[in-house]
Amino acid sequence: MIAQDLTLITAAELPPERLHTAFNLAFADYVAGPFNLGLDQWPALLRRQGADLGLSRAVLNEHGEVLAFALVAPRPQSRRWRLATMGAVPAARGRGAAPALLDDFLQRGREAGLVALELEVFAQNERALRLYQGRGFSVVHELHGYVAEPGRMAAEPCEHRQVELPAAMGWLNQLAAAGFSDLPLQVMPESLQSAVGLQAWQRGSAQLLFTVPDEHSVQIASLIDRDAAQGDAEALLQALAAAHPHRRIRVPQLQRLDLGGAALRRAGAEPLSLYQLLMRLTLS
């Protein structure tokens, strides 16, 4: 229950600059490093996170200042909502705003008849992890990130198909029907459709989506191999290293070990020390 001197509102009611300011304040001391997101970048972040401001909420104090917020992303294909991000400004911590937002998220999910609620949290973020576990969320998968410096990953061209993005997104959308539904939103079409410069390669049971943001790096946006051996994923990674021999290859902390992570490790990529947990609360 929210304190009497606090007000819970729909995030869509707030001017974008106020929510953006609260976001930067809340994540200034984030475990994965501080955010300094420009206001011009705010719409792109919301798109990448799949956030629906009509489903999202914010807590205000008696002066109308934003104390905390919870951005919510619907996943209609699986009748789930994702807690895209939740944060409280430093001055508001300990006032119960974040737990109140989480309880509201749970209540609204039940009222909407959802199957489950989900979120990602860094395993090293002990305070947030305790809060989510205390509300019944449990770990479904570890999500690791990787980096391979130039020359570190085995480089070998292979036969593969470069596919158009609509076909690549269709491939991803078919995963749930094939039994692969426990994937973070950020590696799926809801998030990837807004990516700039995205390229897609396919080989056998695997698909690799990546961007080349600058002359120094390659960013893997989505790597999934439906075969447990992950041989096709490993071949695609080696082809990527051969195509970009002088670039660092990076993978954000969204990679499941069983759907491509093992291939990354075999190919020579190093796991990052910080990693996330995909957590879920089953409602029905």
UniProtKB/TrEMBL annotation:
Q: Does the keyword Lipoprotein apply?
A: no
Q: What is its EC number?
A: 2.3.1.-
Q: Which terms in the Gene Ontology molecular function aspect does this entry carry?
A: acyltransferase activity
Q: Which UniProt keywords apply?
A: Acyltransferase, Transferase
Among PROSITE patterns, the record links this protein to: GNAT
Q: By its UniProt entry, which Pfam families does this protein fall under? A: Acetyltransf_1
InterPro entries, alphabetically? Acyl_CoA_acyltransferase, GNAT_dom
Q: Where is the N-acetyltransferase domain?
A: 9-158
Q: Which residues form the signal peptide?
A: none
Q: What is this protein called?
A: GNAT family N-acetyltransferase
Q: What high-level taxonomic lineage is stated for the organism? A: Bacteria, Pseudomonadati, Pseudomonadota, Betaproteobacteria, Burkholderiales
